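Hello,

Our lab assistant flagged a job as stuck in the queue for most of the afternoon. It eventually completed. Since we weren't sure the result was trustworthy after the delay, we are filing this so someone can double-check. Below is the sequence as submitted and the structure that was eventually returned. Let us know if re-running is recommended.
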Amino acid sequence: MGVRRGNALPAGLVLAGAVSVQTGAGLANRLFSQIPPASVTTLRLWAGALVLLIVAGRPTARAVADLRRRRAWSDALVTAAFGVTLGFMNFAIYQAFDRIPLGIAVTIEFLGPLTVTVVGALAGSATGRGRAVALGYAVLAAIGVVLLANGIVGHLNWAGVAWAVGAAAAWACYIIGSKATGQRMPGSSGLVIAMCVAAVAVTIPGVVQGGTRMFRPDLLAVGAAIGVLSSVIPYWLEMEALRRIAAQLFGVWMSMQPAVAALIGLALLSQRLSPAEWVGICCVVTASAAASRRPKRGEAPATPATAPPPASWRPAPSPAPVGALPQAQSQPTRMRLPPAR
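-- returned structure --
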């Protein structure tokens, strides 16, 4: 089953983001021998925040000024909460990487987007058949994850498992928060603000644990590279994808993360895969492709919305995120996130 023509772009965005973030994870794993994971997290997020400020600082400043002018404190709170979620998600998964293998940590973290997928499938289809088909994609992806982890779950560091579970919860909140922020903020300004909030949130533990070592020029350079690969590129690509597809479809496509992590682990960390793990990769990729095919009668569609963004944003015309409410030209131009489905 091929990817629908209208979904080809967001599918490519999600895949490119997965490759980028897992490559950054592999580089970070190598850096843990020199500075603690909290310090690597701090370098990663500050590098990402500084790059985004350079690229999109002016429009972000205008967006902040517009928030103050409109006294849109609820929009500011949503964006700040998104930033805290980003900070904790990065902190938690790096703590997990330091204690358990990369592929296992990402496999556990996958439970977050899988939960979003299952909940969206249950609520998004009007018929039992449609729900069963949507759930089938998630089940197939889950089988792939189990196969990827086959045979080694009995030797895990349970503190690492706990951190990975925390990262999974944060990842589920990230999907929802990214969508909500994209609906409330113009362009990439929401991402820039959230990244700055995330960097500030992890600074104290990072500096306390890393001390002056983390400011060595060579470590700063590696941290900057990790920040670009793990934060700037994937978050930007994923927010653009979420503007075009439903959150539950995004969650299924993100099921490629364990497979990508396994391949990156093989390339960067010499982590060889068993036949069962390769079968798991095939299950995950198949579920992702099947979920993006043209839906049949009774299945939940995954078509992008076409409602215009608020006129007060003044961005270039672009499709609004799925779930945005269409607005008449004569009514006030405020976009609100509809109740969760």
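-- support follow-up --
The delay was a queue issue, not a problem with the job. The result is valid. Residues 5-300 form one domain. The chain has one domain: 5-300.
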